[in-house]
Specification:
A four-stranded parallel beta sheet has the order 3-2-1-4, with helices on both faces. Strand 2, helix 2 and strand 3 form a beta-alpha-beta unit. By secondary structure, it is of the alpha/beta class. The longest helix has 11 residues. It has a single domain, classed as Spore Coat Polysaccharide Biosynthesis Protein SpsA, Chain A.
């Protein structure tokens, strides 16, 4: 079995590229992958977008109102199961 890689992915209120970024992660050839999406102050339509995916590699942490991003990412790290951890840089206004 390949080592599990955990990718944390912060998403903020301006998530215009978030679905494309998530799909790119899901399309990776490395299948031993865990994707932890941290929703931080996202409107309802963005939250619904991430909850529509049914993929066992995907975990969604929803913080509701925009809050402390570092606390949210720390929670994602605590939830991660991978031997390796990566942070997907945000370009979506978090």
């Amino acid at each position: 079995m390949r080592d599990l890689v955990s990718v944390t992915f912060p998403v903020g209120p301006d998530a215009h590229d978030a679905e494309t970024a998530l799909q790119d992660l899901l399309d990776q050839t490395w299948k031993s992958l865990e994707i932890i999406v941290v929703l931080n102050g996202c409107p309802v339509e963005v939250r619904e977008l991430f909850h529509k995916y049914h993929d066992s590699r995907l975990k969604v942490i929803d913080h509701g109102k925009k809050g402390d991003l570092l606390k949210a990412l720390n929670e994602a790290v605590k939830e991660s199961l991978g031997k390796w951890l990566s942070l997907l840089g945000n370009s979506c206004g978090t």
